[in-house]
Amino acid sequence: MRSLVLGLQFGDEGKGKITDFISHPGSVIVRYNGGTNAGHTVVTDRGTFKFHLLPAGSLRAESIVLGNGMVIDPEALITEISSIRVENKDLKILVSSAANVVTKLHKAIDRAQEEMRGDNKIGTTSHGIGPTYEEKYSRNGIRIEDLADIDKIRKKLKLISTMRRSELENTEYNNPEKIEQLAVELSKYWASIGKYVCRTEIILHEMVTDNREMVFEGGHGTMLDIDFGSYPYVTSSNTISGGVHTGSGVSLRKIQRIIGVVKSYTSRVGEGPFPTELHGKEADLLREAGGEYGTTTGRPRRVGWLDIPLVKYASTLNDIDELSLTKLDVLGTFKTIKICTDYGKNVKNAINVLTGSEKADPSYMEMDSWGTLKEDEIREMVKKGYSSLPDEMRTYIEKVESLSGKPVHIISIGKIRDSTIQKE
Ligand code: GDP
Ligand code: IMO
Ligand code: MG
What we know:
The chain is of the alpha/beta class. The chain has three domains: about 1-100 and about 195-255, Adenylosuccinate Synthetase, Chain A, domain 1 (3-Layer(aba) Sandwich); about 100-190, Adenylosuccinate Synthetase, subunit A, domain 2; about 260-420, Adenylosuccinate Synthetase, subunit A, domain 3 (Adenylosuccinate Synthetase, Chain A, domain 3, Alpha-Beta Complex). Helix content is about 35%, strand content about 20%. The protein has helices at about 15-20, 75-85, 105-115, 130-135, 150-165, 165-170, 175-190, 190-195, 200-210, 245-250, 280-290, 310-320, 330, 350-355, 375-385, 390-405; strands at about 1-5, 30, 40-45, 45-50, 65, 70, 90-95, 100, 195-200, 215, 255-265, 265-270, 300-305, 305, 320-325, 335-340, 365-370, 410, 420. The strands form five sheets. It has a ten-stranded mixed β-sheet with strand order 9-7-5-2-10-1-11-15-18-19, with helices on both faces. Strands 14-16-17 form a three-stranded mixed β-sheet. Helix 3 packs across helix 4 and helix 5 (about 150-165) runs antiparallel to helix 7. The two termini are about 15 Å apart. Bound molecules: guanosine-5'-diphosphate, 6-O-phosphoryl inosine monophosphate (IMO) and magnesium ion.
């Protein structure tokens, strides 16, 4: 089976936990977009593991592939590889020679751009993601394979710093010595990374031919897609299912199962429209119950009710087969649970609301809560399966199915790896 796990909201839906759940010791896990701006968490009895560049499935997988669609900070890559070796020492790692390199200069530009945007700032992670993708599309990007050749790095950095003089003006990279220092620093990474680098699309094609068990793990969420998300408050890659093809070289026609992960409420880090956002005490309650603080930046996440118009838009866009619903234990904190069913009769398209060109007048339906769940109750439910979930929770899940028009198959009711249930 070849599956794709991606988020349908604004990121942090719990994709990492779901990728880990469907991974096996023989699996190949592939990341195809983004960089260290992603933060995917898996909690096991050995501790909490946070992944930024490596896919969350790395704990159990046989092989992982970082595809050409990614932007890779080599220093972060080396750190993450050394951490995963402790947990999965035989893990095979492949890094695309065509992936682009995030440098400190790009991080400095990211910060400078945000400052220049002033009140219109995006609220980026400052990890240099946007500027690195800009470099890629301007065809001046430093590719991972270039790290083998200091002259190439030097030449590219000189060109980049000349072209971006005004953005670098107030940064430490506005002088040639700093650029030379950076070139030397970047060239040193090859000794650690070079052995993983290859044309990953060729190996992936062989893996598909050999019918290997594969999981593609999306970074971020559908509403952060550069084309279809809530532009301009988005990331700089294609987060949707189509990103698999351009970001790994594997055709979407080879994917048999597309799983859209939906948190049973909504969260967003950074700026941009949020039609079902909660404020004040209710927001605080949800943020604390769900631990809604960024995995990557630690920023408090904005939170709100589940948004069905958004989920429907994202489900269609990604052509998903099924939903995976997460964090139902958290939602039970509320006495009454709300779901946004509609943006109001004057709204033409959900995406107009999400890009800010139309204003929503959201309608909500109210549902009974199942209350908070104790750890031993969760364990018992996992053992006994779907039918043992509280009636109110099953009613909620089935309501999400009927409102979204998609079946829910994987249900997550707790942080820990095992607190996951298959509906059918
Ligand atoms: P991702 O970016 O989509 O992989 O999600 P993150 O890891 O950034 O954020 C999801 C957070 O929720 C992590 O801290 C997970 O450990 C946690 N989580 C995932 N599923 C559940 C769940 O069902 N219940 C609870 N309580 N926490 C969960
Ligand atoms: P995962 O994979 C949540 C958001 C940032 C910011 C915007 C642009 O963990 O779901 P960037 O640094 O990418 O240029 O920032 O996108 N963002 C995320 N929010 N989860 C993520 O990833 C995100 N990746 C980017 O907060 O608003
Ligand atoms: Mg995350």
